[in-house]
Design brief:
The chain is an alpha/beta fold. The chain has three domains: about 110 residues, Conserved hypothetical protein from pyrococcus furiosus pfu- 392566-001, ParB domain (Alpha-Beta Complex); about 120 residues; about 50 residues, no CATH class. The chain is flat and about 110 Å long. This is ParB/RepB/Spo0J family partition protein.
Length: about 325
C-alpha cells in the first residue's frame, strides 16, 4: 500500500511538473506572439475591402506616380515581396505602411477580377498602438525613398501637429527623429511654406529644396509677396509642374511694387481641351496664341475664321 501511494505521488508530481512546463511554454509563446504582433511580425492575408485609410494622414501626395504602372506589373507577375503593415482594429484593419502597394492591389483586382488580388499579405500590428508610433512606422519607411518630397513631409508634420494639438516644431522632432538636424530644419521651412501658399499650389511635391527655401525666405521678408504670388498663380493657372515652377522662380525675380503685380517675363500657359473633333493643345505665350489639333484651318472659310478670332480677342478684352 505504501509503495502504491509513493508511486502515485511520484506520478502526480511528474504530471504537475509536465503541466507547469506546458503552461510556461504556452505563456512564453503567448508573449512571443504578442511581441511579434506588436512589431508587425505576424503576417496574414487580409481582404483589401477591410483595410481603411483614415486614421493617419498619408505622407504621399496625390500627384501622378510615374512608377505606379511598374509596381502593378511587378506585383502581377511576381507577387508582393514586402507585405503592407496594418493595425488590427477588431472590426477591420487600418493601414500603417504600404499605401502604394495597397493601391496597386485594388487597381489589379478592379482590372482583373482575380481572387488573388482580393486579399493582400499584411503584417498585423496590435490594436491600440500609440498614434505617434504608427506615424513613425509610416514615416521611417518612406524616409528611405528618394522621391518623398520636402513639401509632402512638411504637410504631414503640420497635419500631425493639428491632430495632436502641438506646435509644428515638436511634431517634426517627434515624427522625423531618425532624420538629421539639417533635414528636420528643411522640413520645418517647407511646413511654413505650405502653410502660406500650399492651397494655391497644384504641384508642391515638385518644388526643389533650394527653391522652397528661397520662397519661404522671400515670403517672410516681404509679406506682401504672398498676395501677389497667389494673384499670379490664379492668373496663369499652370497645368504642369514645369509651368508652376517657372512661375515660382520668376516671381522671386521681381520686387513687389505697392499693390501692383508686374507681369512675368516670358510667361507661358498650356491648356489641353477635348472637343468633338478631337483633342486640342493651346499654348499662350508672349506675342502669340497657338492651337494644335487635327484640323486644316486653311480650309476654313475666311469669314468664319475671322469671326472666331475676333470673338476670342473680345473675350480677352484685347
Amino acid at each position: 500500500m505504501a509503495s502504491a501511494i509513493s508511486e502515485n505521488a511520484a506520478a502526480m508530481s511528474e504530471r504537475q511538473a509536465a503541466e507547469a512546463a506546458i503552461r510556461a511554454e504556452n505563456d512564453r509563446l503567448a508573449h512571443e506572439y504578442v511581441s511579434l504582433k506588436r512589431d508587425g511580425g505576424i503576417v496574414a492575408r487580409v481582404p483589401i475591402a477591410e483595410v481603411r485609410i483614415s486614421k493617419l494622414v498619408r505622407d504621399r501626395g496625390a500627384a501622378d506616380d510615374p512608377d505606379f504602372a511598374e509596381l502593378k506589373t511587378s506585383i502581377h507577375d511576381l507577387g508582393l515581396s514586402n507585405p503592407i503593415q496594418v493595425e488590427d482594429t477588431g472590426d477591420g484593419y487600418e493601414l500603417v505602411q504600404g499605401f502604394r502597394r495597397l493601391k496597386a492591389y485594388k487597381a489589379l483586382y478592379k482590372e482583373t477580377g482575380e481572387d488573388r488580388f482580393a486579399t493582400i499579405p499584411a503584417g498585423l500590428v496590435a490594436k491600440g498602438e500609440a498614434l505617434e508610433r504608427l506615424y513613425r512606422r509610416m514615416i521611417d519607411e518612406n524616409l528611405v525613398r528618394r522621391d518623398i518630397s520636402f513639401a509632402e513631409m512638411g504637410q504631414l508634420a503640420a497635419a500631425y501637429a493639428r491632430q495632436m494639438e502641438i506646435d509644428v516644431s515638436k511634431a517634426i522632432a517627434t515624427l522625423y527623429a531618425s532624420a538629421g538636424r539639417q533635414k528636420r530644419n528643411y522640413i520645418g521651412h517647407f511646413a511654413a511654406l505650405m502653410g502660406l501658399i500650399g492651397s494655391k499650389l497644384k504641384f508642391p511635391e515638385a518644388i526643389p529644396r533650394a527653391l522652397g527655401l528661397r520662397l519661404i525666405k522671400a515670403l517672410e521678408d516681404t509679406p506682401r509677396l504672398r498676395d501677389q504670388l497667389e494673384t499670379v498663380l490664379d492668373a496663369h493657372d499652370p497645368q504642369t509642374a514645369e509651368a508652376e515652377l517657372s512661375i515660382l522662380n520668376q516671381v522671386l525675380e521681381f520686387k513687389p511694387d505697392g499693390d501692383v503685380v508686374r507681369p512675368l517675363a516670358s510667361s507661358k500657359t498650356t491648356l489641353k481641351l477635348n472637343r468633338k473633333s478631337g483633342p486640342v493643345k493651346v499654348t499662350g505665350a508672349k506675342g502669340k496664341v497657338e492651337l494644335r489639333m487635327d484640323q486644316d484651318f486653311g480650309a476654313v472659310d475666311a469669314r468664319k475664321l475671322e469671326a472666331a478670332v475676333r470673338a476670342m480677342l473680345d473675350q480677352l478684352d484685347l
